[in-house]
């Protein structure tokens, strides 16, 4: 669904009679989750564009002494504001899924959240309709896949090739694990784009 369609549906359901006729609707919950993810992805893209893979003052990070995983129910007091960039690793940086019960970054990215939500005409505040509220949560900016393995798949009728001698294969099988909220398609996209980009650079040399 296009972002403008998504925000229109949200706005209509927040204030319209249709929402009142479908309390605790699974469909509405799905759209709300989708909208939060849309905002998060948009903000995350801009965050990387502006400052790359390094913490900056005003970022939010997960205090590893009080919380180990940003997707397993983060306590609000586990999220801290970066004041000393030398003491925080990029793997600890989190961005909020927008809602009424979260802390926003204390820098340009926090302002960007306000601009994006205002542009979509959506206000995720605690109102009179419990089902229409979103408390929000946090998601790590950078997630690493674990237990990553791969193997070449030989073509039918061909002998199994030695990958160490012939690194170019026609097909491959990948297995890995990701945290909740991460998408395997995105991980594969990053892997393939990175590989294709390196190959393109070699051709241009």
Automatic annotation (TrEMBL):
Residues of the TRUD domain: 1-144
Protein family according to the UniProt entry: Belongs to the pseudouridine synthase TruD family.
UniProt-recorded name of the protein: TRUD domain-containing protein
Pfam families associated with the record: TruD (PF01142)
PANTHER family: PSEUDOURIDYLATE SYNTHASE PUS7L (PTHR13326:SF21), TRNA PSEUDOURIDINE SYNTHASE D (PTHR13326)
Classification via Gene3D superfamilies: TruD, catalytic domain (3.30.2350.20)
Entries under InterPro entries matching the protein: PsdUridine_synth_cat_dom_sf (IPR020103), PsdUridine_synth_TruD (IPR001656), PsdUridine_synth_TruD_insert (IPR011760), TruD_catalytic (IPR042214)
Source superkingdom: Eukaryota
Keywords for the protein's UniProt record, in alphabetical order: Isomerase
UniProt lineage: Eukaryota, Sar, Stramenopiles, Ochrophyta, Bacillariophyta
Protein's organism: Cyclostephanos tholiformis
Presence of keyword Isomerase: yes
MF term (GO), any: pseudouridine synthase activity
Residues annotated as transmembrane: none
Gene Ontology terms describing biological process: pseudouridine synthesis
């Amino acid at each position: 669904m296009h972002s403008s369609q998504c925000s229109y549906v949200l706005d209509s359901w927040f204030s319209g009679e249709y929402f009142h006729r479908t309390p605790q609707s699974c469909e509405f919950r799905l759209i709300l989750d989708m909208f939060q993810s849309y905002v998060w992805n948009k903000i995350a893209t801009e965050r990387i564009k502006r400052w790359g893979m390094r913490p900056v003052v005003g970022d939010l990070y997960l205090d590893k002494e009080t919380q180990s995983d940003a997707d397993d129910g983060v306590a609000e007091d586990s999220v801290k504001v970066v004041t000393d960039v030398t003491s925080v690793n990029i793997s600890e940086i989190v961005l909020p899924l927008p809602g009424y019960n979260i802390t926003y970054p204390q820098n340009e990215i926090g302002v960007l959240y306000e601009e994006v939500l205002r542009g979509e005409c959506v206000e995720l505040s605690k109102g009179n309709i419990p089902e229409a509220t979103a408390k929000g949560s946090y998601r790590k900016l950078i997630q690493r896949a674990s237990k990553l393995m791969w193997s070449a798949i030989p073509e039918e009728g061909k002998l199994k090739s030695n990958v160490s001698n012939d690194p170019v294969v026609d097909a491959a099988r990948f297995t890995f694990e990701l945290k909740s909220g991460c998408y395997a398609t995105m991980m594969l996209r990053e892997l393939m784009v990175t590989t294709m980009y390196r190959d393109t650079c070699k051709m241009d040399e």
